[in-house]
Design goal:
Six copies of one chain form a homohexamer.
Chain A lengths: L2 E8 L6 H19 L7 E8 L3 E3 L2 E2 H6 L3
Parallel strand pairs in A: 1-2
Antiparallel strand pairs in A: 3-4
């Protein structure tokens, strides 16, 4: 029954529908396995964020990627 | 004064500006009516999520829609 | 099927379980009525926030309440 | 590098620190495995929500549990 | 180490990458200065929201802007 | 007018009401200065998270603190 929100950057090679489906399945299974919560109403929402809009350590991911991270 | 975030899928027929305005008005009124919170600084944010990015019960809404849900 | 998160302050007279149930029912019904989304997997989460932790216009709600708002 | 927020109810037998650690490890590993995002700055936040404050299908989890769900 | 999510409207003149970088730097510095939390794993995510999807006081920002606010 | 959510851990010496007020004022001012958004309806919500419930790099902050981080 849990709700999960995943935020990650939209990179030059964005994640595929297959990867999204695998993430949703994987997180839902993990919650069943570890906390025994029924999967039927488990909701997972993936937000893809522009690298200009995602900051780590005070810098945008655009800048971090430009430095080769 | 509350803050409300609504996440729903962006379907083939997306919700219209009129529906969004009605949702925002409706939720704001509901909060006044039930919890007596002044509406002036009530903020409502609607996130429209791709069906590939919204999972229920371990499957994406894209897959659920494909099966006729 | 939508997900809704409501954040409001925990005041001296906190909202009751009955008010929470009415909010959850009201928001779920509103989503059915306005955007025709099936209610079965609609999830509503209410976060009650200390007045020290909720700011409007640059001031905490504790301070605003202290001035009679 | 992603950010993950998990919201689940605080039940009579709350989840343990060990379960929380396993969830955090499991989600972080899943993101490495499926989307190849470096784990170092992956952040996972678990919110435990009172059953009065979590609604599914228009009813609080308190009410659903009372009916034996 | 904190996580910060900023939601603001996408206006006719959207905020620039430079403004986003300045926001991310500014918020990260503020957290170091006020709460002494190390900046290395501080994550800031900016969500730009359509004016139709952002409501204040029961009205969308589209409508508020149309009245000259 | 933006909405800001700050999530940080509740440490042995929790942040004080004065620090919370300074954070709320500081973030609101920063948004005025950088993106020229009127402060009147800017909302800032601070969530204090148990160190067991906050994970970085696959480990809880409880464990990281135990190793002297």
């Amino acid at each position: 029954m849990p709700f999960v929100n995943i935020k990650l950057t939209r990179e030059q090679r964005p994640i595929t529908p297959e990867q999204k489906a695998a993430l949703i399945k994987g997180v839902t299974d993990l919650l069943v396995e570890i906390v025994k919560r029924g999967p039927k109403t488990t909701v997972v929402v993936i937000d893809e964020i522009d690298t200009d809009n995602y900051g780590i350590g005070g810098e945008t991911v655009t800048v971090l990627r430009g430095r080769g991270h």
